[in-house]
Structures are given as C-alpha cells and as structure tokens.
C-alpha cells in the first residue's frame, strides 16, 4: 500500500488514467494537474491547477511518458491549461521527492539535477521495455496488415536489432508463419537468433540481405537503412521503423526509391492505451512501495 504518500500526476494521456486508478487504489494521496476536462472522478484524487499545487507536500511527481518539451511544457490531453514544469517547482518539493517520466531530455535532466532531485526514466527499465514490447508487436502486426495486400504468413520479414523489442517482434512474426531474418551485431545475439530458429545475419552485411524482403521492421535507433542499403531494396518492400525519432531510415531517400517507409512511434499508447497504462502503473507502484529494493 502507498498510504501516507503524496503524489502529483502532472499531465499525460489515457495511460495516466490507469496510473491514477492504481495509485488511488493503493491509498496514495493523489493530486492531478492537467486533468480538469476529465469527466471521471477518482476517489482519493484531487484536480487542481499547477499554481495551486503545494509542491512542498509532494513525495513523488509522475510526468507523462514524453516527460516535458525542450522548454518544459508538459503535454496535457485532458486540459487546455498550459503546464510548464520549472526548476523552482522541484526545489520546493521534499528533498527525497522523485520524478518519474517515460523518457527525458536535456531540459528535464537539467531541472532535476539543478534541484538535486532524482529523475527516473521508466522507459529505460528492462521490465517496462519488455512488457511494452507486447503492445508494440500488436501495433506492428496491425500496420503490416494495413499496409500490405498479402499475408504475413509466408512473407519474408527482416527485423533489425535483437533488443527487447526486436526479440518480441521476431518471435511473433515467425509464429505467424513469416520467414524471419534478423540483423544484429553482437555475437551472442546472432547465436540467439539461430537458437530461435530464425535466420541471423551481421548488421554490417545488411545490404546483402535486403533484396528479397517484403517487410523490414527496424528497432535500431541509429541510421541503418541508409542510402547504400535502400539502393539495394526493391520498391515492394514495406519499412516499418519502430525506433525512436527520427528512426533509423533515410525516409527522404526511401521515398525517392518508391519504397513505402513508415515511422511508427508510440504504438503501445495507440493500440492499447489501457494496457500500456497498466504496465507503467504496475511498475510505478512497485517503485513507490516502501518495501521495494529495485
Ligand atoms: P534495446 O533493447 O536497446 O535494443 C536496441 C537494439 O539495437 C540492440 O539490440 C542494439 O544492439 C541495437 N543497436 C543499437 N545501435 C546499433 C547500431 N548502431 N548498430 C547496430 N545495432 C544497434 O531497445 P528496445 O527496447 O528494443 O527499443 C528499440 C527502439 O524501439 C528504441 O528506439 C525504442 O525507443 C523504440 N521503441 C519504439 C516503440 C514504438 O511503439 N514504436 C515501442 C518500444 C520501443 P547492441 O545490443 O549490440 O547494442
């Protein structure tokens, strides 16, 4: 239980509703900033404006997955209020106050460091990334179906990267009957790909493997589908780039080559906001729990 903890949830989208639900169920005192247009009322949660929040009483701050913009603005889907988080706000919190965000940027890192408050980037955690790979896979399957006129079954699918997302994508597309090749650079990953019954290749040899690809799914957050590689790809290939913006594809050159290349960020929040919210809420509750050792 989170009895005795005061938590400010500042901004966010539908995923935050699951977090609010879970934190209030666990008996935390929750203040909601940026939720004035939300019809639903949660017992134990109080809606207020940023200027009304008593930062001095706050043990933890929960920001949206996106954190803040480069100038501190916090996205508020359920409000028209312009919410800007500043270092002076964090300085007013209790010294042990922790800020939880999905991802971060220089601004957020700067105000956390400047105020000497701990910032936890939830999306860097293995548990969240692995749980999130489940709705991400479903989103990738949805996009593959929407943008092709053939079945995944029997198609040649190339997955780039065998990290937390790449592994789930490779396994799921293979289970649907695709012939899956996976590009990686670590020898342990190449061994794992072979063990999974898939076809491994070294990422340095990418250009030699793209020609017969129907669907190429990139999870490598680095320019990997560049001019040289795209020149060897056929226009019938569909590229689904899941890597964080700006993705790993030279989109302009892909378009010139007649290759359909789609950047597909934030799939969990699009295809399954409730599940995506529950994933964050469960991990967050564990982290906030006084007994946690993580
Ligand atoms: P991850 O576990 O860190 O995996 C990334 C993989 O990329 C690793 O296997 C890594 O290989 C490889 N890699 C990185 N830089 C490389 C390079 N220069 N050359 C070759 N390989 C390289 O990350 P993840 O959790 O799977 O996430 C992957 C990306 O997808 C991230 O950008 C993440 O933000 C994004 N993502 C997007 C969605 C969505 O909805 N679109 C959902 C979840 C995640 P090594 O291990 O050898 O370094």
Note the main attributes of this structure.
alpha/beta; 2 domains; binds NADP nicotinamide-adenine-dinucleotide phosphate; 34% helix; Rossmann fold; six-stranded parallel beta sheet; 294 residues; 10 helices
Fold blueprint:
Elements: E1 6-10, H1 14-25, E2 29-33, E3 45-48, E4 60-62, E5 73-74, E6 83-84, H2 87-91, E7 98-101, H3 106-114, E8 118-121, H4 126-146, E9 156-160, H5 164-175, E10 179-184, H6 187-195, E11 199-202, E12 215-218, H7 227-230, E13 238-241, H8 251-256, E14 260-263, H9 267-271, H10 273-288
Parallel strand pairs: 1-2, 1-4, 2-3, 4-7, 7-8, 9-10, 9-12, 10-11, 12-13, 13-14
Antiparallel strand pairs: 5-6
The structure holds NADP nicotinamide-adenine-dinucleotide phosphate.
Number of strands: 14
Mean pLDDT, to the nearest integer, reads 95
Number of helices: 10
Q: What would you call the shape? A: elongated
What is the helix/strand order?
EHEEEEEHEHEHEHEHEEHEHEHH
Bound molecules: NADP nicotinamide-adenine-dinucleotide phosphate
CATH domain fold name of the largest domain: Rossmann fold
